[in-house]
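pinging the channel bc i need a second pair of eyes. not urgent but kinda urgent?? the chain im working w is below, pasted from the shared doc
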Amino acid sequence: MNIYTLLKFLGFIMIVLTSIILPLSLLESSIADLTNQFIEWSGNNQFLNSILVIFALTADVFLPIPNGVTNTFAGAILGFYLSIPIIWIGLTLGSIIGFSIGKYAAKPLAKKILNQEDLERSEEAAKKFGVSILLIARPAPAIAEISTVAAGLAGMKWSTFLTVMIVSNLLISIVYAFIGTAALTSQSASIAFIGIAVIPFLFWLLAKRYF
């Protein structure tokens, strides 16, 4: 396991354990507080907030930044309607970068970024299951990024890849925009927990069956 995969996995585990161990009642007020603090820091500059969200999601292929956290937070600070296109842009750009690494940079660079064993297993899964594995892996931490690189290595066509990403990322954007907005509006840690931990964990378990 390389440092990228390890950091991403540890980050995800910390999020899950923290969300489970800490009483939800202690987190109820923090949802609004954290969002308000961030908005105050940024001067409620929605353009700046949007750029930061897009950067975090785009850089996810290189950095251990859990998408579930970024997406949920984006829904809270940007609101439902603005967060949908912003999340979609970030997810799609990150997907394109991962796919390009696999398709054009080939295995030498891909192996430096991702774990070799995971990459080879993912490439095999991409060749065997094609589009379906991309759909299953999209909300899964770490596996989502590995699957896009593997799709490029497997020789998937750009048209097929982009079609899958456009549709799947849009669905994810809508779901997380709703979760983030609802969590802030109701100041509910339980709703935020669904986006931060439950959805990513369930899809991670499902995707691991194929990788």
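so The CA atoms of residues 82 and 121 lie 37 Å apart. and DSSP finds ten helices and no strands in the chain. — does that match what u expected or am i reading it wrong
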